[in-house]
Amino acid sequence: VALNVSDLGRTSAFAEDMFGLAPAGSGPSGERRFRCSSRVNDLILFQSDNPGFRRAGWELEDEEQVDRAFSHFEKLQLAPRYLDADEADALGFRKNAAFRIREPHSGAQFDYFAYMEEKSVPFRPTVAKISRLGHFALNVPDAKATTQFYVDQLGFEVSDYVGDQLVTLLRAFPNPLHHSMGIGGSRTGQAHLNHINFMVTDIDDIGRALYRFRENDVPIVFGPGRHPTSDSIFIYALDPDGMTWEYSFGMELFPETGARKPRFMSARAEDFDMWGARPAKNFASSGAIHSGL
Ligand SMILES: [Fe+2]
To answer: Beta strand pairing status for 2-5 and 52-59?
Structure first.
């Protein structure tokens, strides 16, 4: 995932010291890379006057799938564009094997790739044992049409509906994780970032985050709590631009065949969290969708 941030230094410090991501150098436009896996980058931060969601990358099974997806998006007239050698290199993709589209419902840019360069030095956890960049969620003007598009054209499966299009949790089939993406309705009429998520390996990581955030005046906007849908234990906090970042522990896994049907979960306040946590007003409400290249 790539984010735009208003103060690169400040959000870089937040990513490293508060969330425990490992700095992994700078890119050609001064963007800063961070890792939480063996890959060359999991999160990239760009300096911008308009903080928000810049881009996400989806890993496909192999290069044949990348070409198949490219043809599919050409037929849908989404104008997919293979990244040039420098762009691919800066992102750790193999040359001529990654392309970019703008998803028409949210306006978000997605890169599709089959391989990302890996480092010989493993990610070394510091303040939290991050297992992976888990997912992100976007709010869109028409959540129903958007969700339908993701299922029909982008290959996602619905794991659960929360309320009537309040949030739909989608898995990037055949990835077994309950959700790699969430889609919610926008109350402003504009698409915006809901949150980004990092999964942790220990429940202690959630508890430690609670006290670390408090100690450092990082606003906690939801949690700790436990989602009734994915069974994840979570805590959400605001980054320096007011964008919502989440840690979660545990998640339901789905088999590739014979998976259960999606459920239609209550979105009533008393059903929203198993422990009684309530989101703050500024939860998941900041972060514009990047409209530039
Ligand atoms: Fe989440």
So the answer is: antiparallel
